[in-house]
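G.,

No rush on this.
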Amino acid sequence: MSGSSWRTATVVVICCLVQSTVVADPKWVGSAVDVLTNFGDLYLKFRVSPRNDSNPWVFYDDPSPVLKDASVKRTVFYQDKGEFRLELCDDFKALMESYFRHFFIEGVENAWKAFALSWSSAKQSSSFGIKSPRGDHGFIVLKLNVQKEKYHLQRLSNLNQSVQALFDQVSIYDTMSAIKFYQQTGTHYIHSYSTGNSLCQVLVYERQVFENLKKRIHGPVVPATNFAAMAKYLSPLYANEVGRVMVASGDLTIARWANEILRRKRSRLKTKYPSLWSVMWRPWIVEEFTSRTGPDAVVGLRLELIDRVVSADEEKKKWYHMLADNFLKLNENNA
């Protein structure tokens, strides 16, 4: 059965002070997002993976607020909040699920499909720092997520007047009027998001090696807290390919620094290789990474269907919700 497991869910927290305030400027919270129109390409709207560009945008579009008087809470992590995760992925689908673990889209079972279904082999390779693997492979994902800021909606609001007026024009059981509405306004709104940056490394294993590793890592013989033993399994001694350490923001300066500072050499190997796992016994690298980066990428996101905030009778709201949900499932299942 394909999937992924969280054998090591080690959390490295270097957060010394958290400040939460209600802000007048909601930023992108409450902004509309058209998931249906952009299904498979949402990564073009949010900086969630390395991009080959020099423009440092985080959200591609300007805010498009649809909520009235939204109450938004902003949380700032001073000295930052870092979460380190190791995940075993049975196949490439599980690898994608792992990468987009902190992304939620209401009505979409696998958020990664909405973001990255259109990725070509070249895009997959450039995003994960590996060659596009062919054949039967397993993967281990190492990811360090650093949050700088988090914005989230404190309580449900109503649509603003202009958007509500557009929804009033939707006629129940008239599919085309509903399609026209979401094309004009979007299917979802941003309920919450976190900005920061992340380091990610993917290792590729031949199937038999991967299955043996799963037994060892899950078994009592080699606990995941045995850093030295795990380091051996996360090296070219076992991995068919050790990917480059990638930076979500695509910052080439940070990427070069990370791959250089994380280079290791095992006694039986002639060449050095980068190892994100080494932050487990060198936590100062995490601190230096957080000092080098800002709120440069989206590291967490929650999108909710817009019908949650419309003013209408229950029959119309249920019908619209069912229609939007069906369209989303058709997009996902037919992909």
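When you get to it, here's the other one too:
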Amino acid sequence: MPSTPSTEAGLGGAGSTSIVAASISFLGSYWFVLLPALFVTRLLYRRYAMPMSKYPGPALASVSRLWKVISTASGRTNLQHIDLHRKYGPIVRIAPNEQDQVLRRVPPPENPDIFTEVREHVHAQKKKVANVPYSMAAMQQLSPFIDESIELFMSKLDGFATSSQSATKGRVDLGAWLHYFAFDVLGEVAFGRKFGFLEEGRDVEGAIKTIDDSQWYNGIIGQIPEFDHLFRRNPLRKYIPGMSTGNALVTRLALAEMDRRQPFTKDNMGKNRVGDGRQDLLASLIQGHLKDPSKFSEGDVFAVAHGAIFAGSDSTASTMQSFFWHALADARVRRILFEEIRAAVAEGRVPIDGNLSWVESQSLSYFQACLKEAMRVRPAVGLNITRVVPPRAWSLMVNFTLLAQSSL
């Protein structure tokens, strides 16, 4: 007797149910075998079947991002990458889908910035505004205010040199004082005022430590950015005392300075209403926002101004620390530098006292060479930023190799 449609539907439903039940029973009985098998299969796929499999590198890096985490945590990534290239050649696999020396930078929770913007046209719009306050003309306009920080810094060092009863007992951490100096200078450049590091001679509110800790976080979690949502972007974080990202000194100062200049109008052009009316970095960014708020938002103003202090102070201090360490540690270099400066003073190319202008410093060729070499030997940024291969793929000049889409 032919089956009716309802009978067929009933049989089909029963068959589907039995298949599902059997599958669940099978998984429940053999999960201890299936899970390891799936794990091993995934490792084998990453190791041998992914587009990046053709490139050499550490075995751990071919199956997991753990190699990058360990390398970054060691603080010797730059040296390890050099060793890898010496061992494996021009292209090295450092993660299942990454080659060469790269870093995923974790965007700040407050607002994405120009370092993390991957849309080229949007990045170009933001960079156009962010570049203006760093021009030579803008820096020269702020030179008198920077000179004040230089003179305060030198007076502190002179005090250490002339005071035999100094609490330092003849020892001064020049690296720390260079960091205080960088922070106060960036404060003058960005917000039109010092942060008080030089005056107090200490890490105010642990701001430098906060930045150092954040750099470690960005470096390590940047290798496994998915974990950022578990830690810094976790919505529960704001309910934990002392864990909110808005509590940091630099973040508070940036937000407070923006509030102080509100409302943003073309009348005051973003300048501090109670200050000396200087054209600092924040004022320049606000003016860029006023020209086209749709392309450079208030969030962008905050992100760039915040980054100028947060990242700028650390990289500036690192560069100065590298220069002084290498110059002071080598008697020959130190002697040539002193001879060049004395000759320049005798010839009238630089003043016998006071601060040097940028133009005057360019006449000191050996000094300029030492400065560039210090940045080359010890770059302020030890990890590079990733480059994502575009949809139609991107041809590498190295061996004319073609990388797969979305590899890094």
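The chain is about 55% helix and 0% strand. Residues 5-9, 101-107, 393-408 have pLDDT under 50 and may be disordered.

Enjoy the weekend,
O.
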